[in-house]
Design goal:
binds zinc ion; globular; 2 domains; Rossmann fold; 344 residues; single chain
Length: 344
């Protein structure tokens, strides 16, 4: 089969012919219908500092966001059948460690597997994965939309952890997950939604998806606008997706006392946090991170939301390209609002 393989540490990847994977008793073999290019794939491809220190075992087939059809199931697999459409839960928990046994398998700390990093990923014609991590997606959902379920579930986990119903929310960063968070915040019953980005194009999209106030962080003063619109109080919830030190330092200034900040964006160097005492301690802010999706609460909630057909999933699709045009896809990913979809 054709696959996009990260072969050596350093920029680039190779489009190669490799064997179709053989499955074990507890695994399923899936024919990939569509996959999506995540920022983290771009990091692996470009070999940015974020991934350089991860000591990834290479070679590995890249990619983790996908929708595929099950073509074979292992002998011990129950509840998943040939023909089912599935998305992959990227995190593969060990099932044995303290995290796994206390309701947090999504942040398993016993060598948690990660699709497309520690195991072969989805930028290929076929992928195998543990049946546990195969999430059934209704067959009526278009395959390109199915390919973005994993990041959509990440956005949902961030908002669920914050609790946004009846709350004012600032979404900082309008990449795909940020835009998804805007629409999901609206769906979940947030009051005012502020979308913040340096890209006017992405802000226009955020407005379309339900943001009340769009703030261009390049030309406008985020702190001033949010404080003004919230009568000097600040927002109840902020979701930080930029991983930008300047934004992170400003976020505590836009928070209502006792508000909650959910950190999603990655930062690959020691962070200087100027407003710790005045911002965090005096305001009793709640700071939390999220990593991936809760297994499996987030997926259950997401499937229930999808059933309503009220989300504008097409808005998150940037471009559609054949997998072999991966170089073009990487270039496009820097400018497109929404995910670049790759078809094997
Ligand atoms: Zn991703
Ligand atoms: Zn574990």
């Amino acid at each position: 089969m054709n696959a996009l393989v990260k072969t050596v540490p350093g920029a680039g990847a190779q489009y190669l012919q490799v064997d179709i994977p053989m499955i074990k008793d507890d695994e399923v073999l899936v024919k990939v219908k569509a996959s999506a290019l995540c920022k983290s794939d771009v990091d692996v491809y470009e070999w940015t500092p974020v991934v350089q220190n991860l000591k990834l075992p290479l070679p590995k087939i890249m990619g983790h966001e996908f929708l595929g059809e099950v073509v074979e199931t292992g002998g011990k697999v129950k509840g998943i059948n040939v023909g089912d459409h599935i998305a992959g839960e990227t995190h593969i928990p060990c099932g044995q460690c303290n995290c796994c046994k206390t309701g947090n398998p999504h942040i398993c700390n016993n060598g948690m597997g990660v699709l497309g990093r520690s195991t072969d990923g989805a930028f290929a014609e076929y992928i195998k994965l543990p049946a546990l991590c195969a999430i059934k997606i209704d067959n009526s959902i278009p395959v390109e939309h199915g390919a973005i379920m994993e990041p959509l579930a990440t956005a949902l986990h961030a908002l669920s952890k914050a609790g946004v119903s009846g709350k004012s929310v600032a979404i900082l960063g309008c990449g795909t997950i940020g835009l998804m968070a805007v629409e999901l915040a609206r769906f979940l019953g947030a009051t005012w939604i502020f979308a913040v980005s340096t890209s006017q194009f992405k802000l226009d999209k955020a407005l379309k998806l339900g943001a009340d106030f769009c703030i261009n962080n390049k030309t406008e003063d985020m702190v001033q606008i949010i404080m003004e619109k919230t009568h000097g109080l600040g927002v109840d919830v902020a979701v930080e997706l930029t991983g930008n030190e300047g934004v992170i330092n400003n976020v505590v200034k836009i928070m209502k006392p006792a508000g909650k900040i959910v950190f999603v964006g990655m930062i690959d160097y020691p962070l200087t946090f100027n407003n710790y005492m005045l911002g965090v301690v005096y305001k009793e802010l709640v700071l939390t991170g999220i990593f991936g999706r809760r297994i499996f609460d987030t997926w259950e909630m997401l499937n229930a939301i999808l059933e309503t057909k009220r989300l504008n999933l097409e808005e998150y699709i940037g471009e559609r390209l054949p997998l072999k045009d991966y170089e073009k896809a990487i270039k496009l990913s820097h400018s497109t609002a929404g995910r670049v979809i790759l078809i094997p």
